[in-house]
Amino acid sequence: MTETVPTVGIVMGSDSDWPFMQDAATALKEFGVPYEADVVSAHRMPHEMIAYGSEAADRGLKAIIAGAGGAAHLPGMLASVTPLPVIGVPVPLKYLDGMDSLLSIVQMPAGVPVATVAVGAARNAGLLAVRMLAAHDADLRAKMTEFQEDLKAEAQAKGERLRR
Amino acid sequence: MTETVPTVGIVMGSDSDWPFMQDAATALKEFGVPYEADVVSAHRMPHEMIAYGSEAADRGLKAIIAGAGGAAHLPGMLASVTPLPVIGVPVPLKYLDGMDSLLSIVQMPAGVPVATVAVGAARNAGLLAVRMLAAHDADLRAKMTEFQEDLKAEAQAKGERLRR
Amino acid sequence: MTETVPTVGIVMGSDSDWPFMQDAATALKEFGVPYEADVVSAHRMPHEMIAYGSEAADRGLKAIIAGAGGAAHLPGMLASVTPLPVIGVPVPLKYLDGMDSLLSIVQMPAGVPVATVAVGAARNAGLLAVRMLAAHDADLRAKMTEFQEDLKAEAQAKGERLRR
Amino acid sequence: MTETVPTVGIVMGSDSDWPFMQDAATALKEFGVPYEADVVSAHRMPHEMIAYGSEAADRGLKAIIAGAGGAAHLPGMLASVTPLPVIGVPVPLKYLDGMDSLLSIVQMPAGVPVATVAVGAARNAGLLAVRMLAAHDADLRAKMTEFQEDLKAEAQAKGERLRR
Amino acid sequence: MTETVPTVGIVMGSDSDWPFMQDAATALKEFGVPYEADVVSAHRMPHEMIAYGSEAADRGLKAIIAGAGGAAHLPGMLASVTPLPVIGVPVPLKYLDGMDSLLSIVQMPAGVPVATVAVGAARNAGLLAVRMLAAHDADLRAKMTEFQEDLKAEAQAKGERLRR
Amino acid sequence: MTETVPTVGIVMGSDSDWPFMQDAATALKEFGVPYEADVVSAHRMPHEMIAYGSEAADRGLKAIIAGAGGAAHLPGMLASVTPLPVIGVPVPLKYLDGMDSLLSIVQMPAGVPVATVAVGAARNAGLLAVRMLAAHDADLRAKMTEFQEDLKAEAQAKGERLRR
Amino acid sequence: MTETVPTVGIVMGSDSDWPFMQDAATALKEFGVPYEADVVSAHRMPHEMIAYGSEAADRGLKAIIAGAGGAAHLPGMLASVTPLPVIGVPVPLKYLDGMDSLLSIVQMPAGVPVATVAVGAARNAGLLAVRMLAAHDADLRAKMTEFQEDLKAEAQAKGERLRR
Amino acid sequence: MTETVPTVGIVMGSDSDWPFMQDAATALKEFGVPYEADVVSAHRMPHEMIAYGSEAADRGLKAIIAGAGGAAHLPGMLASVTPLPVIGVPVPLKYLDGMDSLLSIVQMPAGVPVATVAVGAARNAGLLAVRMLAAHDADLRAKMTEFQEDLKAEAQAKGERLRR
């Protein structure tokens, strides 16, 4: 974790989701975006969860990344108490391949959106947060463009190898 | 609504769910169970929702029926702040036939169960609440047994008509 | 199994479901709720199943927990012959991830509700039964509230560890 | 209904399923197979349902056609109390397009099969019963072969029209 | 394989389906029903498949059991060229858990039914064939009733063990 | 229908599929590709269906478009008896939104591919046949390129109108 | 459309999506966020689509909202050529209830996220864009908080009416 | 890879798809069809992907095989910039069994078809390309017919073994 004031909060219902969610942290680190990570369970600590969301903007966060599985209520509940964009990561559980997590996160009612990424796609959640920040930060935007160039170069190198 | 202290709370995220949810009220009325009905939105009034759940047991409620659609968080969030049994009714929205509502309600994590009924089955939610009460109330249990006898008689009469 | 008169019956179609279903028993034991466990197969011993359900209330049971997989008929059939609340646990089989079990249990017709919990969620079935009893038992309700506090404390401790 | 002893029983949980299920009766009538139709609800008249299934073989029935929707337990429960082949018709309800009905009927455990036809396919249930009888009745088999020839002729005539 | 004239034909698209399909053979053997097993691929040997179906009744078969996976066309194609009842077994492939196999087999058009059993349920296919025969054979019907009694006894013994 | 020797065969199981399938014919007509349309039912006229497929290449057809719904066996069966590319159109039926048709057509076993298009996408089936021909016909390829330019021009005009 | 430089681009594959997508525009208008709307089809004008995405950031856009249905490639393709956050709206088509659109948009590979909202939820796409901007604009954030208060007040008024 | 001018292009988004996609190459090799294989990522190298598709026909390719997983945009995007037939292979990812890949590839809008094969069916993609070429090449068509005869012979041999 960085020592500066965090810009992005990464939260999850249990530390058992951390193996998935730490990819979000890694992505943020790659772009030098300070973040914090915490367990904030919608179902086990609802008052603290409400408090976390309610105070997030005033504490300086610019986006919240929330991972949850099954009847995944954390992203949506946070979105209901913060004006910040909330990014939801559907964590796949033992059954149903994350389809329950996906629908529980993405199908939010009018008025309270959650920016949902793919099942298990915590890295993309981190990158999406970077894009949100980069829209207002030319340096970060340049880094994202460079990152996309790198992705291209890697893909091209793979093609090279495949062609011999 | 009855004038006595309500035993069951029927809540939903919007009064647009009332056409579905009033079947729960009707069922309770048929059994003489006093109830209250209210709009308690997880996403639009999260603090009030938390308060509703937290105070439910002390106000004398014995069960809560909560209807919700899409990313349906109301039943699960209420279950997280009350020790009472919460009955969840998956309300079908315009798309996906209520499958999103069903999974968002039923797939709760260990520790916080929601008693889920069929998609759109508010009447059964009411009857399930009656059964919960009837387990501790011989009169009500007798009424439920009688109700089941009536269901049988109706079904038998239908068979009669079908056979000529 | 406890020596006092059981308050909750835990039944399943085969003892091969016991690895799943014993989590319900554990939950009940944690709360000091006396229970019984039995194999009552809807498809292999239908008369005994009907008898089990018909006599459950008179034997003093306050709720029945029934686990079943695939074309899971046990919870619904029991619900049709008892006035007690029946809690259905969708047991996942080798294929389809329990989606068949879930739909076969939850989609009950009007008049005969089953309180359905998540796929494989036998522990939550036990906790739901405790909640039903707790609504009529202040001591048990206090225990459930305490249990919820413990869940919170654990989640907070996990957050602690995650934050360092 | 015919006046001779019925060979096939057509049952359903409610006469509201009759609009679907009468196509089974029509198919049987076309082949001169005597049948009976009745309302036998698994959930509303479980004892009568068990009795119906238990006595079916002794009453001379050779097959039972059972239509049911949602948590469709009728075909499987009848199969558990009769040695006769039971044909299940998944009746589509208002939501989920009959997928719940299909899975609840077809996914039977080892030992107790149900011969399942397509969602809403009561006519095919009737024709399947005819095939079962025709395997032991040369005249009926000849009729079925003729019926298949007629289907071909109709299809060919349609092709004729399409080609001009 | 028995030496008498086979009464039931068990066919599949490839011998790689045999590990699934032999459960059907075992069930028939338990009831003393003579059968034959063969590879008859709808997609790899269509003419032979058509021939197999067309001649089945005249060869003395009373029912055909056909297992197939994915775009499972074998059961339905056989049903289109025989007046006999065809029992379809959805064989699960590497992806989709047999849902494609199930729908490809069960959703037959009006006129050409396939008696579909559960995903991977070859044993039940065998038992269903036995029931079809038993409807016309008192001895076999007595055996099936006895078999059902045995299932009950086993289930009861499991309950015994579970209760201690 | 054109008077020249047809290059593409459009077939379907019933003329009730024609409202869907004629979009394929229209597309072919737009590109001046001669075609024939016929009813060739896999389930109602299996021998004729086999004959149609077996003779298609020798009759000069270069591709076959086959529409089918439910347990849709026509495209796959044709593919098993012709070396030509077969294009499958999943026709949506009353229930399941064509998901059964799609899986029954696309999930073909190794060795026998079907070129599947979207649910109900007969027009795209026609255009896919044109592309197959255009790969070997410079004029047709030029027309397809022009067609794609027209699609672009239309889309641009729509953008124009939307921007005002 | 506003006259100032647009901050958000709303694009769709066809003006037939406009009835859905204009809800995004309305939401932006309510918050005084300048936007532009255009038809940018991934499949019909791929070069223009690539150009639109590539130039978006330099033209001053801070976010792109893209609606698409079926094999919905527009949001993901735009995300691959811009460093800006792209919000994807799954537009439901005639079949499959938007499930194809949802999966085609949300299941993006690592490196290229799309912020996906609910099926048909164009209004929420607009609100999500506002939140992204509001994280960097105290006034807008205050407006969003106020908007959330209004949602609450409306919900409370509905509860009022329901309670009488 | 062959040294002659390639007739078929096999492309994929990453070389991690090669284990799946090389089955397409093997099939082409068996028929002596020259091919090329390359990494062409829709999301990581969009400009190159557009270029690849735009130039394919002029370079002499007659068909493109494109494999992709998840939000699989490669086949459809290539189809939008080439007049050639594009064959899409849904690559299954870690979750959802390739259902997302399938829908993202097959559900293309009117005007831009993709010839979709089964989930993971790269071999069939190769065979489908051969069929497209064989329709215009009598030798290749003879080989395909011979190949189909071989499939039959293999299936018959399997039957032989199964029958003893």
Protein described:
The structure is a homooctamer of 164-residue chains. In chain A, strands 2-1-3-4-5 form a five-stranded parallel beta sheet, sandwiched between helices. Chain A is built from six helices and five strands, in the order βαβαβαβαβαα. By secondary structure, chain A is α/β, with parallel strands linked by helices. In chain A, 69% of the residues are buried. In chain A, helix 5 (122-134) packs across helix 6 (138-163). Chains in contact: A-B, A-C, A-G, A-H, B-C, B-D, B-G, C-D, C-E, D-E, D-F, E-F, E-H, F-G, F-H, G-H. Chain A binds chain G through residues 57, 62-63, 80, 83-85, 87, 102, 106-108, 110-119, 121, 123-125, 127-128, 131-132, 134-136, 141, 144-145, 147-148, 151, and chain G through 57, 62-63, 80, 83-85, 87, 102, 106-119, 121, 123-125, 127-128, 131-132, 134-136, 141, 144-145, 147-148, 151.
Short note summarizing the structure:
The structure is a homooctamer of 164-residue chains. With 164 residues, chain A is of the alpha/beta class.
Can you give the helix content of chain A as a percent range? 40-55%
| Number of extended strands of chain A | 5
Shape of chain A from CA axes?
globular
Described by its quaternary structure, the protein is: homooctamer
Uncertain stretches of 5 or more adjacent residues of chain A? none
What's the end-to-end separation of chain A, in Å?
42 Å
Helix count of chain A, per DSSP? 6
Task: Report Rg of chain A.
Answer: 16 Å
β-strand percent of chain A reads 15-25%
For the largest beta sheet of chain A, what order do the strands appear in spatially? Answer: 2-1-3-4-5
The topology string of helices and strands of chain A comes to EHEHEHEHEHH
The structural class of chain A is alpha/beta
The largest sheet of chain A is: 5 strands, parallel
Mean pLDDT of chain A: 95
Give the largest chain-chain interface (CB within 8 Å): A-G, 39 and 40 residues
